[in-house]
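Q: Start with the shorter request: fold the first protein.
A: Done. Sequence, then structure:
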Amino acid sequence: MARNTQVAADHNAPAVTKILAAFVANHPSRGWSDAVDAEAHRTFMNWLGCAVGATHHEAADAALAAINVLQPAAQASVLGRATKVDMASAALINGITSHTFDFDDTHLKTIIHPAGPVVSAVLALAEHTGASGREVVDALVIGIDVACRVGNAMYPDHYDRGWHITGSTGTLGAAAACARLLKLDEQQTTMALGIAASQPVGMREQFGTMTKPFHPGGAARAGLMSALLASKGYTASPKALEAPRGMMQTVSTKNDWSEITHELGQRFEISFNSYKPFACGIVIHPSIDACAQLRAKGVTPDKVQSIALRVHSLVLELTGKKEPADGLQAKFSVYHGCAAGLTFGRAAEEEFADDIVTREDMVALRRKVIATVDDSIDEASADVTATLNDGSTVHVFVARAIGSLQNPMTNANLESKFHGLSDAVLGAEQTGKLIEACWAIGNAANVQGIIALATPR
């Protein structure tokens, strides 16, 4: 029986599926500035360090155990392990580990973590096909551009509806990047994007669980499979993104098509990528930064009576867990972030370990944090006042935290972060060589050297 439904749809949307496909297939190699290329190398290195660092997390163990039931062919490597699986499963596992610590890159305009889906798919495919390092970098830049432009067009409505935008747009970015690496033509690339458009993955309800990092991994696998299907003649709607019942109008009421088409091939979204100094949700970073600054001013936990925290409403919406039970939940607790910043002056992965999260002094300090909403404060800012036991107060306002575009991490910062993640897995010497190989990937004949260095000896 036919239903009489009313759908507010844009029936005159531009042909963005084909427009993006033409860009992916035809844009020249290294067709961007040196600054964009440098950011691509920074993005790759940051992603790889995160993936190696989390390789022995219980989420990775569980996912790999499930994959091994399928007896996968040994096509591509699980980073940080002497293990090979089929390339789609390698994309899944490496996508999971790259996001497990919530320490990966962030496109701040949309809160997309673009490298997880895109680079996880590209590196697994490149290892199997023998693609050059330059081809990998090209695919990375182009895939991230597709994911973030689609994200720009739908944000914030799509995110506010509950979609984890990293996974939903990441599937498209991974498909675009793999289509580029496979040298698909415009028609095949249109099909790859169309196939990927039926596979958006990720709900915000999963934040604080193992399934959150599954989203970039699932997107990487889906995008890779979309490109492989298209390469063999599998078809999809050529309007799968923009049609009234296509992906974008189905999952968002906001679709600003100009965000996709404007300056396409001239402005690259990877230029707006940022990197986390703290291993948690990006909206907690200003609060951690502020509390670390309090510590630098001589404020220590034993001196604190209370901490008044004023933040934008989004901060508490996303990270308002007052009593996190473990490390995964603590990554979405601004209260724990403040306690870590004040106690340790930092918030790397170690500060989100389960035994730290449940430690009595950390629980007690979290309960001294009084957070209130003030929407006159930007999402990327935090206002913190510590009241001390003697009645005095110390105030810190952070307009933009370290790691933001206005206060970016340096290359040296990124290398130090990489060592902190990888040394325990690969050793400091091998990690140092891997870092050098990451900086030089654009000139590498293939990715085998990087894979070898990312494998424990």
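Q: Next, the second protein, separately.
A: Sequence, then structure:
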Amino acid sequence: MKYAFIINPASGQGQQDGILESRIKELIAGNPNRDIRIYNTRGEKDATVLADLIAKDAEVSGDEVVIFACGGDGTIQEVANGIYGHDNAILGVVPVGSGNDFVRELSRKRGNTHDYLKLDTIFDGMPMNMDLIRMSWIEKGEEKCHYIANGINIGFDGNTAILAHDLKRLPLVSGSGSYLLAVARNLAAKKGQKLRITADGKDFHTGKLLLATAANGGFCGGGVQSCPRADLTDGLIELMAIKDIPRRKFISLFPKYKAGKIFEVRGVEDLVTYTQAKNIVIEPMLAPTMKFVGDGEIFETGTLRIDVMPKAIRVLMICP
């Protein structure tokens, strides 16, 4: 077994700058008989290219390789895209980003998020088959596609994540703090969307809504448990929309929504539309394109098709 660490130095606002690499070098020194290597990204999509090349190199020698995404949800997404299609590659996670929502979902099965920061436990980890979400759309007459590990947020959630992305650049604003500040700003404007959504060929929603989430994992926004019934291994996409409800109503609903208790709210069927599906189509109704967030990355497309890819890759579960 080979091990590769792909470090995104920009993750977590650079707070891990140099520290994580030093810890990995200590791990290498303490395990001289293991093949462990370090790579650093320098720009967008670097992690995808590196993961693909590392997996191909291991294939030549007939080895399996665990490729650790050292960063946030965006870095995990990039590495997942790079290893997709390589049966010898396993996704590892060292969560040093701002949100770390994907690892929160992994931790629901066993342990906690801090276990994934303990490098001395990686050799005892167990691979688990997990689903991916495939997004596809038409751009300049050509079909584009991208794979998502955690989830897609459109409307209020997506707008909040987009604004939080910008707010994180401000001094003294943390990852979770930027999300809460963005929530407050977007509540003041009550920014939602107007969409036509179908799920497995059936009408799901048409018209205004506050937010829509198509998810593989259960968390978004740095710990908001938006989809409490999510399962990375069930071959289904969580699809939830919060209707165009009054601002005051959403403010009262938000604590339950954040805590993963949205379905415990009395009369929730009047506020939320929910299903699980294998394929989803989302069409913008206000403009030719729509902005949304997939695993922390900002996208802008026209009609979006979303398909589940059951057990598409393997992910390393840390067993404390």
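Q: Describe the second briefly.
A: The chain is about 25% helix and 35% strand. The CA atoms of residues 137 and 143 lie 6 Å apart.
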